[in-house]
Amino acid sequence: MSGALTGFRVLDFGQYVAGPLAAMLLCDQGAEVIRVDPPGGPRDQTAAGAIFNRGKKSLVLDLKNEVDKQRALQLIDTADLLIENFRPGKFSSLGLGYEALAQRNPRLVYCSMPGFAHDDPRASVAGWEAIIAAATDTYRPTPDSNGSTPKFWNLPVASYFAAMLAATAGVNALNAQQRDGLGQHIEVALFDAMFTVIGARGMQMPTAVDMSLDFTGFGVYECQDGRYVHFAPVAPRFLDWFAEAAGVARWATEGLLDRAALSSCPETALRLRSKLTVLFKKRTALEWETLADKAGVPLTVCRTTVEWSDTAHALTSQSVVSLNDYEYGTMKQPGIPVRLSLSKEKIQGPRHPLNAERSTIVADLLQPNAQTARRANVKVDPHCTAPALQGVRVLDLTQIWAGPTAARALAEFGADVIKINSPHEPIMSHYDVNRGKQSILLDFKDKKDMDFFRKLVKSADVVIQNFTHGVAERLGIGYDDLVKIKPEIIYASVSAFGYDGPWCSRRGYEVQAQAAAGAQVDFGWPDQAARLPYEINDYGTGVLTAFGLSLALLHRARTGWGQQVNSALGYTATLFQSLRFAQMAQAHNTPSASSAALGMHALYRLYEARDQWFFFVLDRESLWRLQQILDLPSLGTLSDTGQQELLTCTFIKQPLDFWVSKLDACDPGIHRLVTVQELMSDPWVVQHGLSLTREHKDIGMIRTIGPVARLSRTPLVAGHPATPPGSDHAAVMQALAAR
User: Fold this and answer.
1) What is the mean pLDDT of residues 117-137?
2) Which SS3 state, helix, strand or coil, does residue 297 take?
3) Cβ contacts of residue 600 below 8 Å, gap of 6+?
4) Band of pLDDT at residue 377, cut at 50, 70 and 90
5) Distance (Å, rounded) from C-alpha 544 to C-alpha 530?
6) What is the pLDDT of residues 611-641, one digit of tens each?
7) Alpha-helical runs (H) found in 181-233
8) How many other CB atoms are found less than 10 A from the CB of residue 298?
9) Domain boundaries defined on the chain
10) pLDDT at residue 345 is higher than 70
């Protein structure tokens, strides 16, 4: 056995990003993935397909042709998991809906990834990436726009998160399938997936909580060579270490290194930032990165993706790999974003030519199937609706967002999670990421606490930690230590840049991953590098860690063996630059940062109506209809710039509701820009549990995000509200004694 999913067959009917990426994640972990395209091939003909479809077999079927449809049904009979990302009802109209297919193949896990969920009032709206972004506060005003002009951001965040969440849900549905012999329907809508990204930004406490660390000097700075670095002194010691290494320790006498003074006095914080601005101009960006690395301080050069892909670390750690694509030749691509030590992941080769496996797949359908034989030995329990991970115990030793998000995800799938924090360190975003967990405080330097921890390990299935490389080992809680206590333990390590390569010991946070992989240069173009609107790498790494742990649990259920799981912010950040890697591969397409314009072109762009901003999307084929409706006969004759100018002058004349009604006949995608505050109080969002407002002990009412994926047979659970740190110690001790 090699990959955790070896022996499982996945059918990928997806298009564009979300569906193909979900299937790619499964393929890289050993699944046999058969990509099914319509005649003419994928809808997306760019080099992105060479990334998202790597390692998959290729089959072309016309699902409107009865012969091909019957072949599709025969193929589905042999599958463990099916992925589609069309509008709700599209596949059902072809006779390929879940209910019909489950009658033929009760073990089938059927994953739908529409733009908007089947019961969302916008279910019939095409789920263009930008429409989802407009609906989820992604296009916000830039600081220099006086709070009025939103900034376009061409990164398919919703598709990326829907793909990762769907892959994680799919693996846990397979965990349930292995337990009780039945599949189920999963729905992960792109709109819903964005709530995982929103995370702590959607949290509302009884008293306002400022998440900003700007007062610490945190931020982007220009250096002597005109390049930028992102400095992140999140912990007070980092600012002290940096000042000592930079030769400005004397700033302490001015109160500039005092966290309490900086947080309470805006003038002091402003003085620190001014001094840092001057200081950073005295060395090059790379010199600052080298100095900070030696001092143990989180600081990273803001690179382009091209630069990142050439670094020794990206190559050595296999954050970036090379594949020989049949169309684009040698092509750099993101590596596998989560690694398992025993059930080794492996890219199963480059993308296959279109329909390359048709003859072998069709012939295989006439032969006895290995999947069918394997199923015959599995006992079916039609009454089992227990959560997929019921009975699994997780010890969560992590901090900030990535690790705790992974453990929260496992809790949503039914795991018993014990959150372990230090009594000496502050806990960030506790009420956002720690719902559904029991909370205890342990000092790993205290013998009594260590004895208690070892007892907990004996009762545990999974341990997750995100200490700097080597720290867990020094504390006596590394993998080699714990496997002696529990040989079948599954041990996850979450790091900044991975445990392989020259950056293996480098500290870093969300912003360091953004800066390293090219995202901040992209987002800030053509001006200075800039931080992204959401913490995509923290939350993304959390989801991918949960994906890896779910794979490890599936592997253990099949073999009895535990193993290590490794994830990193840098791996995730590289995956999120997939479209930039695709641009790098295309001839005559020099990779450059995202445009500062309001969209990609006139028919995929932000516009301002009389009363508000909105995003507008229209197929090129419908341009003639648009010019008729707007009575703009010259629209089709203009250059793209001319079309943008004419539409800008037109749309500003009327309120948005007027345009939504008037343009309905040409079926555009239109959505106003919605803020996080509006989202979290939206009645549909609240009704469907994406926003939770609950009483928290000793705090009051707190609003947080809820679970995203919908599983028809083993639904996710939100879990109880996060308890006060350390408040479950006695209960955990009592339960452990009773085991």
Assistant:
1) 95
2) coil
3) 154
4) low
5) 25
6) 999 999 999 999 999 999 999 999 999 999 9
7) 190-198
8) 22
9) 9-200+357-382, 214-308, 384-575+707-738, 602-674
10) yes
What's the CA gap between 447 and 144, in Å, rounded?
54
Instruction: Give the per-residue pLDDT at 476.
Output: 96
Angstrom distance (rounded) from CA 249 to CA 496: 27
Q: Which of 144-158, 368-382, 446-460 has the lowest mean pLDDT?
A: 368-382
**9: which 2 tokens?**
């067959």
- Asked whether the predicted pLDDT for residue 439 surpasses 90, the reply is yes
**What 3-state class would DSSP assign to 13?**
coil
For the purposes of burial, counting CB atoms within 10 Å of the CB of 410, is it exposed (0-12), middle (13-18) or buried (19 or more)? buried
Query: What letter does residue 252 receive in the DSSP assignment?
Result: G
* Angstrom distance (rounded) from CA 194 to CA 202: 11
Please tell me the CATH superfamily of domain 384-575+707-738, with its number: Crotonobetainyl-coa:carnitine coa-transferase; domain 1 (3.40.50.10540)
Q: At 29, give phi and psi (nearest 5°).
A: -105, 15
Phi/psi at 418 (5° precision): -110, 115
From CA 472, how far away is CA 494, in angstroms rounded?
12
Cα–Cα distance, 359 to 351 (Å, whole number): 18
Residue type, 44: D
Q: Can you give the pLDDT at residue 608?
A: 96
The CATH number given to 9-200+357-382 is 3.40.50.10540
| Distance, CA of 556 to chain centre | 25
H-assigned helices in 151-265: 157-180, 190-198, 236-246, 259-264
Q: Which residue has the tokens 């329909």?
A: 355
Write down the pLDDT at residue 207: 81
Q: Report how far residue 287's alpha carbon sits from residue 279's, in angstroms, rounded to the nearest whole number.
A: 12
343 close to 30: Cβ distance less than 8 angstroms: yes
Q: In this prediction, what percent of the chain has a pLDDT beyond 70? A: 95
DSSP string, 315-352: HHTTSEEEEEETTTEEEEEE--SEEESSS------SBP
pLDDT surpassing 90 at residue 143: no
The CATH superfamily of 214-308 is: formyl-coa transferase, domain 3 (3.30.1540.10)
CB 717 within 8 A of CB 707: yes
The reply to whether 214-308 and 602-674 are identical in fold is yes
Architecture in CATH of 602-674:
2-Layer Sandwich (3.30)
Q: Output the pLDDT for position 4.
A: 96
Whether the predicted pLDDT of 593 surpasses 60: no
User: What one-letter code names the amino acid at 156?
Assistant: P
Mean pLDDT (the chain) is 93
CA atoms of 650 and 90, how far apart (whole Å): 34
What average pLDDT does this structure show over 59-88? 95
More confident residue, 466 or 141: 466
State phi, psi for 243 to the nearest 5 degrees.
-60, -40
219-222 β-sheet, strand order:
219-222, 228-231, 299-301
Q: Give the pLDDT confidence score for residue 46 in this predicted structure.
A: 92
Helix axes 190-198, 157-180, angle to 10 degrees: 100
- pTM comes to 0.96
Rounded Cα distance, 550 and 528, in Å = 40
Q: Residue 236: CA atoms inside 13 Å, Cβ hemisphere, count?
A: 12
User: Which regions of 528-612 does DSSP assign to beta strands (E)?
Assistant: 564-568, 599-601, 604-608
d(CA 255, CA 575): 41
Cα(574)–Cα(581) distance, integer angstroms: 9
Band the pLDDT of 362: cuts 50, 70, 90.
confident
Contacts of residue 653, Cβ cutoff 8 Å, sequence gap at least 6: 610
Helix (H) or strand (E) holding 676: helix 676-680
Rounded CA separation 230/515 (Å): 7
Give pLDDT tens digits for 197-239.
999 999 998 887 767 788 999 999 999 999 999 999 999 999 9
Measured over the CA atoms of residue 484, residue 485, residue 488 and residue 492, the dihedral's sign is negative
Distance between CA atoms of residues 711 and 413, nearest Å = 10
